[in-house]
């Protein structure tokens, strides 16, 4: 019992996930900067590695402002729910082992549902600010959900169909049994759809229209300051960890790899971090290369290209398996 | 208590987010300040991010002479920022009115409207001067002198 609490709280649970997701934000910012021939965060800690922590602590020490006209319940509730949902979804990922802290048949569907609920929380956060700029950002975030949710679900489900199991651990196990990662095969289309749809889920360029700085100031998080903004930024980092980890687990064989018995949790975690760092670097390259799409372009792209590709992928998976 | 305060001050100094506001400038100072974000000068080394909302920013960088029309807006933006907040007046127009000193519709410098913590002279400012101003302000924040 005590052991399980320690596992859920420290390794590979909350503290470990938080630390690694802050590290991933650093990788993302540094890599993005290097791609633009800049230096990136440099002064906060060696190589700027403590920059995300400095941002968090600074935000926690700011004044707490609640706009007079904002809905108090949503204003307080949504910044707490957002990182909690994503942290709960992270518990399904196999990090220090071949199955997550929570693992049951069907948890892939629960994970996708948690991601959709996160976007609804974002919508509530924007509407609860009682600010017309935030309303526009929130509506755009919800519209984006309509676009990318089905291709994301289908890409993950096609891997699940190929594996014959609806749990993340089952998909990982199928890759171990076959001795080959899912990405080498028709699932490479699934990986491409996953990368595009995950960028849209995380509201990163080219899909950051809900937060279009030049247009609607800061989108749905325009009225949030201090600790609430810190929680939203944390939820963005956790989402980065979750989606790069999910891509690594489902398509690149997650935490599987040659192990020395006795050092298993450590080695599994190392493989997981290495493979999800690869997916993270792909996300950063996409972020650096593309410009922002308009909201109507996002929806028409999702339904004209991603959806048919996802359906073709399902058909291919059924035919070839 | 001393250690926590020291850590918090250090974090505030390592992560100064800025908000640019133009109160009626000719845009040259805006271009030069925006040039600080380009790869040549790269102000993100200091942890500086350009934020869109005053509620997210720590440092308000104001360019241009404060015109009569912009005065209420800049006061409102300054009041929307959460404490602790700092203001940098970029350019001679913001410092003292510059080329528009004594005009019927401008105020003599930004500090007649909101409290200012750093002044950068130049018409327009050099990006190196803005970087130096940010690093001096950041040092003062870290030592707790501002």
Note down, in words, how this protein is organized:
The complex is a heterodimer of chains A (321) and B (146). Chain A has 321 residues and is mostly helical. Chain A has helices at residues 2-9, 14-35, 51-60, 72-90, 107-128, 132-163, 168-178, 187-201, 213-216, 226-252, 264-289, 295-320. Chain A has one domain. The N and C termini of chain A lie far apart (41 Å). By secondary structure, chain B is of the alpha/beta class. Chain B has a single domain (2-143), classed as Rossmann fold. Helix content of chain B is 38%, strand content 12%. In chain B, strands 1-2-3-4 form a four-stranded parallel sheet. The two termini of chain B are 19 Å apart. In chain B, 47% of the residues are buried. The chains are: A mainly alpha (321), B alpha/beta (146). At the A-B interface, helix 3 of A face helix 1 of B.
The geometry of chain A reads as: globular
* Topology order of chain A in helix (H) and strand (E) letters: HHHHHHHHHHHH
Strand order of the largest sheet of chain B: 1-2-3-4
Instruction: Specify the helix fraction band of chain A.
Output: 55-70%
Mean pLDDT of chain B: 92
Class by alpha and beta content of chain A: mainly alpha
Number of strands of chain B: 4
Oligomer: heterodimer
Q: Cα-atom Rg of chain A, whole angstroms? A: 19 Å
Q: What is the top-level CATH class of chain B?
A: Alpha Beta
The proportion of strand residues of chain A reads under 5%
Do you know the CATH topology of chain B? Rossmann fold
Which sheet architecture does the biggest sheet of chain B show? 4 strands, parallel
List keywords for this structure.
heterodimer; A: 321 residues; mainly alpha; B: 146 residues; alpha/beta; Rossmann fold; 4-stranded parallel β-sheet; 5 helices; 4 strands; 12% strand; globular
Concise account of the structure shown:
By secondary structure, chain A is mainly alpha-helical.
Write the layout of secondary structure elements.
The complex is a heterodimer of chains A (321) and B (146).
Chain A: H1 2-9, H2 14-35, H3 51-60, H4 72-90, H5 107-128, H6 132-163, H7 168-178, H8 187-201, H9 213-216, H10 226-252, H11 264-289, H12 295-320
Helix pairs in contact in A: 2-10, 2-11, 3-10, 4-5, 4-10, 5-6, 6-7, 6-8, 6-12, 8-12, 10-11
Chain B: H1 2-14, E1 18-22, H2 28-35, E2 59-63, H3 68-80, E3 86-90, H4 92-96, E4 118-120, H5 127-143
Parallel strand pairs in B: 1-2, 2-3, 3-4
